């Protein structure tokens, strides 16, 4: 891990701790490099109204990088929510008090890994069984807004793109390989982050592309489409 990844995890961890300490029922967590979709507030209220009516959720992604190639199932009774699959990024999410308690109970600071790997492990949808085996209660109920309500302000290669997590120094004092990926083509294996060198041509977590070679996986829902197409669809529906 890099020092930036550790710092990022601690930022989220401190929010979960504060939620429990102050008995906060729901909290919206936003990172500082996000871009809001049009009519964000109105659409966020719609997503939350659905979630509260249905009940049983612990975390709802508002922004993420979707990596799981299988279709994500719609939540019964909802027009705006799907069951979250393996995802990167913690751009923005709503977490419940029970969800925060679940994340804290596993004492993740004693077996630290990047926060956007920890969350999929905790809702038991992670490709690395070796990592997941260190966490017993993987019962976080994670949903996602569909379509998403948040995107990054910059992607890898954009002018002004900076990653305080991936491009910071590692805990062993070395620097990450430029352009290296945390999960290669989007799926993590047992070698990744365990000292193996990743080819510099592979993407980083900050890359724009999602679901490589799978652009037609989902049609009507708009999930997994390119950002431009998704924005166009959102704006047309709002207008």
UniProtKB/TrEMBL annotation:
Region (Disordered): 174-239
Keywords associated with the record: Glycosyltransferase, Transferase
The organism's place on the tree of life at top rank: Eukaryota
Coiled coil: none
Annotated Basic and acidic residues bias: 226-239
Transferase recorded as keyword: yes
Domain Glycosyl transferase family: 1-117
A GO molecular function held by the record: procollagen galactosyltransferase activity
PANTHER family hit by this protein: GLYCOSYLTRANSFERASE 25 FAMILY MEMBER, PROCOLLAGEN-LYSINE,2-OXOGLUTARATE 5-DIOXYGENASE/GLYCOSYLTRANSFERASE 25 FAMILY MEMBER
Protein family membership: Belongs to the glycosyltransferase 25 family.
Stated name of the protein: Glycosyl transferase family 25 domain-containing protein
Protein source organism: Anopheles maculatus
């Amino acid at each position: 891990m890099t020092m930036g990844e550790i710092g990022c995890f601690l930022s989220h961890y401190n929010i979960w701790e504060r939620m429990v300490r102050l008995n906060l029922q729901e909290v919206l967590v936003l990172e500082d490099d996000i871009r809001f979709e049009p009519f964000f507030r109105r659409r966020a209220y719609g997503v939350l109204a659905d979630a509260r009516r249905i009940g049983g959720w612990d975390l709802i992604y508002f922004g993420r990088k979707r990596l799981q190639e299988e279709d994500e199932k719609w939540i019964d009774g909802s027009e705006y929510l799907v069951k979250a699959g393996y995802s990167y990024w913690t751009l923005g999410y709503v977490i419940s008090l029970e969800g925060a308690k679940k994340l804290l109970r596993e004492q993740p600071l004693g077996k630290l890994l990047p926060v956007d790997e920890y969350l999929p492990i905790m809702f038991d949808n992670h490709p690395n069984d070796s990592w997941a085996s260190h966490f017993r209660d993987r019962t976080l109920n994670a949903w996602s807004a569909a379509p998403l309500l948040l995107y990054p302000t910059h992607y890898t290669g954009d002018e002004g793109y900076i990653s305080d997590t991936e491009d910071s120094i590692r805990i062993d004092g070395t620097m990450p390989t430029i352009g290296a990926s945390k999960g290669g083509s989007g799926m993590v294996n047992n070698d990744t982050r365990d000292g193996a060198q990743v080819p510099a041509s592979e993407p980083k977590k900050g890359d724009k592309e999602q679901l490589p070679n799978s652009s037609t996986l989902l049609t009507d829902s708009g999930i997994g489409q390119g950002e431009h197409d998704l924005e166009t669809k959102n704006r047309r529906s709002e207008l």
